[in-house]
From TrEMBL:
InterPro entries tied to this protein: MpsC
Annotated organism of origin: Neobacillus rhizophilus
Name used for this protein in its record: DUF2294 domain-containing protein
Residue ranges annotated for the Na+-translocating membrane potential-generating system MpsC domain, each copy included: 3-113
Length: 120
């Protein structure tokens, strides 16, 4: 059941990214560690963003826009509610970053109680 819940969590991350960013990552994997859900996403950038990152200024712009946008998405109560309902735990905080050169993003969700035992 644990792997199934990680898969469900990944699918929820993808669904939300598609809804609010316009496209979801090509690959996503999530691991639960104590009260953290760590999602790694590959293949995040749009064709326009890939064009923009050909310059240093473009890289900086895409990085700032992506990290700010993701943090704003997860401030929305309707988004937080979906994760809290799935996990049966409250989201306390979120950390997110993207490596533009490798097109890999990481988001760490911090919950109010351990989630890695769920379903065991």
């Amino acid at each position: 059941m644990g792997k199934n819940l990680e898969h469900q969590f990944s699918m929820l991350v993808r669904e939300i990214r598609k809804e609010y960013v316009g496209n979801g990552p090509k690959e996503i994997s999530t691991r639960f560690v104590e009260n953290w859900a760590i999602s790694e996403m590959k293949g995040n950038l749009t064709n326009v963003e890939k064009f923009m990152i050909n310059s240093e200024q473009g890289k900086q712009t895409v990085h700032e826009a992506r990290t700010k946008l993701v943090k704003e998405i997860y401030k929305r109560q309707e988004v937080v509610d979906k994760f809290e309902t799935l996990m049966g735990a409250r989201v306390l905080r979120l950390f997110s970053d993207i490596n533009i050169d490798e097109d890999i993003a990481m988001t760490v969700f911090v919950f109010d109680k351990p989630i890695d035992q769920k379903g065991k």
